[in-house]
Amino acid sequence: xxxxxxxxxxxxxxxxxxxxxxxxxxxxxxxxxxxxxxxxxxxxxxxxxxxxxxxxxxxxxxxxxxxxxxxxxxxxxxxxxxxxxxxxxxxxxxxxxxxxxxxxxxxxxxxxxxxxxxxxxxxxxxxxxxxxxxxxxxxxxx
Length: 142
Hints:
Elements: E1 2-10, H1 16-32, E2 36-52, E3 55-67, H2 69-81, E4 85-93, H3 96-114
Antiparallel strand pairs: 1-3, 1-4, 2-3
């Protein structure tokens, strides 16, 4: 089985539910065809380098998976016919250095997914926040 990374960009006009449904649909295609999904990195809305189908922005998602080579053809065929996908790219990792980097990317994607979100307490207008800074002068030793 080979290591693959597929990046795809969804239209920015989709709702959160439609985006989640498209991501689940793509992952279902992989699993149905025998791929092992290692991680999914939902990068969110980002600006495109150039307009694609009159879109300046897109929702980026990366799927890291292990699969046989024939599955990639089926995945890309489905991505091509999905009207919500405006761009996609699949990368195969084969060399040892590439596989090591792939494993780091998978670990990082899983870490981001599991990281708990901190609650932010809003500062009201009546509160004032002051911060004291201390300046320490150092002299180089001769």
